[in-house]
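Team,

Forwarding the record for the chain on the shared tracking sheet. I've put the sequence and predicted structure together so nobody has to dig through attachments.
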Amino acid sequence: MRIAQIAPLFEAVPPKLYGGTERVVHSLTEELVAMGHDVTLFASGDSVTSAKLAAMRPEALRLDPTVKDWVAHYMKMVEQVARRFDEFDVIHSHIDYFPLGLLSRQRVPFLTTLHGRLDLPEFNEIYGTYAQTPFVSISDHQRRPIPQLNWARTVLHGMPADRLRPLDVERGYFAFLGRVSPEKGLDRAIRIAAAAGVKLKVAAKVDNADKAYFENEIKPLLTTGHVEFIGEINDEQKPAFLSGAHALLFPIRWPEPFGLVMIEAMACGTPVIAFRDGSVPEVMEDGVTGFIVESEEQALEAVKKIATLDRARVRARFDERFTARRMAQDYVDLYQELIDAANAKAPRLRAVAGGN
């Protein structure tokens, strides 16, 4: 199968540090290649892949301070993909609504995985304009703001089974991993750890948009003595970081579309204490891979039970549910459905054209 993967340009594929969507695209692309498919990855030139790399610019947008209008780079990429439509059996986009106009006007089967939140009013308008094109959600909950779209399938994220592994290390803290922003709930994590009398290690990125929040709301909390702020970490650092934690704290306050850090923790055998919002009940199994809570008080009760969970079982559930091979096979099944539907439609269109 000849497959085009269209990746975001903000980070390399895979990202060098933080970057959820790009990390998923990398896992999917590599697994598709391992399965024997002919894959072309449209991404930044500093990406690393075993697929054919179609470099859309020299480096990721986040690393280039000269970029003033990132939309222009996306529109240029869409046009370059359009000029190569006939090279592919299926086109898989991960860049939201940017290519939908062109994709919907050509004959190659395509799909768009939506990786972000959909609860903003503008999204209902733009995606509703393309309501008949096939979309993939990364959790069932993600669909709720726009249930009327042509949802082809929900495909939960996965990652390579050997990317992160449990390490036999001493455990002595709680972990917070990801991004510092109001919706990620780092302030909650700091309070939970303080109330439990346990150290909190924070490995997180601070985006430019969240610097004021970090300075005003989070930085004063870092002086309490029980918090160690590490900053961004890479995949090589994650096994030790997560394996050394009693639990990952995931105290979100927004409709999380998926939450990749939950399965990263599970891959290391580390249970998760997560607030019930967004995708959490679809990813987490309460009492098996961690605990789902609805308040800081409930989180403290969960802390008392965390040692009762079997960390080997946490890892086993990752292997059963969240590997890159399972994710890739889900997508291949969908690709084939779209190709079969397009092939079945083509003779009818030719017959109609001939009749005219």
